[in-house]
Design goal:
Elements (H helix, E strand, L loop, with lengths): L3 H9 L9 H26 L7 H24 L10
Helix pairs in contact: 2-3
């Protein structure tokens, strides 16, 4: 029988020793408006978990959903696909 601890060290030792690459950080920065809009929607939904949603809560959730949709639209319109070989 092989001890689990020996296998665990092989898997996790190298996986915790790295930072995000500059390309990954740029991708996160590129998606930040969408991330902020999704967090705002989540905040609006969390406020209605422990009590019934009032008219203001419903409007806040609706506005937050619209912001998420707009951010997704903007992100998909801004996304540039790079084709190999420099083809346009």
């Amino acid at each position: 029988m092989i001890p689990i601890a020996a296998l665990e060290r092989l898997v996790t030792a190298a996986s915790l020793d790295f930072e995000p690459t500059p390309a990954e950080l740029d991708a996160i920065e590129h998606e930040m408006p969408l991330i902020r809009a999704e967090v705002e929607l989540l905040d609006a939904q969390i406020t209605t978990l422990d009590r019934p949603a009032g008219e203001l809560d419903i409007r806040r959730i609706r506005r937050a959903r619209n912001r998420v949709l707009a951010a997704r639209r903007d992100l998909s319109n801004r996304t540039v696909t790079v084709q190999p070989g420099g083809a346009a």
